[in-house]
Amino acid sequence: MGYRTKNLGVWSVNMKICPQCTSDSHERTSSTGLRVVGCIVLLFIPYGFFICWVPFVLPHKFLCNVCGYHGKEEELLNLDWRESEELKGQHRELHEKLQPVKDMWVQDTKQNSYKVIHGKGQYLLLKVLENNIVPYRIVGYDKDTDPKRIMIKDNLVENFNVTSSISKIIDKSNVQVNDFGKTILLDEEVTKFFSCNVEEFSQWLNEQAKVALLIDIEVLPNTERTIIEGKNGYSNKSTLFTNENEEEASDSKKYNDFHV
Ligand SMILES: [Zn+2]
Q1: Residues 135, 153: Cα–Cα separation, whole Å
Q2: For ion ligand 1, residues whose CB falls within 5 Å
Q3: Which of 125, 156, 135 is nearest to 25 (CA)?
Q4: Cα of 76 to ligand 1 centre, how many Å?
Q5: Domain spans in the chain, listed from the N-terminal domain onward
Q6: 106 CA from centroid of ligand 1 (Å)
Q7: For residue range 193-238, what is the model confidence (pLDDT) as tens digits?
Q8: Burial level of 147, CB count in 10 A (0-12/13-18/19+)?
Q9: Which of 152, 200, 234, 239 has an alpha carbon within 20 to 30 A of 141's alpha carbon?
């Protein structure tokens, strides 16, 4: 169950967001019940009375329902009313920019095929691999570059998978498109995917005139808070799928510099 801190002051509704993906959908993973049990157990040991409060001051943990980040609750970013409105505005802006390419197929310069979709509240980029179709979270879209550029991150919980299996699949015969996948992929696309290899699939999309755009795909480091920082431009420490030397970028920014 998700939880939010609601401050019942007239104008202040605080929102706690995941430091990695800015989602406010997260849940507490540490149990208060266990702390009570721990406290009771301590009461039965000699001098336990003096330390029975310890379980209650251990930091609580949370799990993000979007990117899967598991951290201490104190890492959650606390947005005030103005900041949360700003964040919502940035999400809205991204959604408006992506609206024209929603449900469209795009390709990169290496003829990899991707479908831009919206599902479960997120814009996703589905990449067609040889034996699977893998979702990525779209965090930015630059319409003014040539080719246009979609920024993605690969941290996404299994709930967003469109197939029954996770990425590294050896044999396509073990893969099935799940119920979520069926809502965002057309029957003919699914049938074609299972009947040919990945190059033939890309060719077929071209023949069917299904490919709308040539794009660059930029993979951003998962630790970068893209949406919030979007106004200042995207980091150049990211990697392109099309880049030969995919270096693992590391972001030096710390989460807690957000409020500085
Ligand atoms: Zn997250």
Answers
A1: 10
A2: 18, 20-21, 23, 64, 66-67, 69
A3: 156
A4: 10
A5: 15-79, 87-251
A6: 26
A7: 999 999 999 999 999 999 988 999 999 887 765 444 433 333 333 4
A8: middle
A9: 200
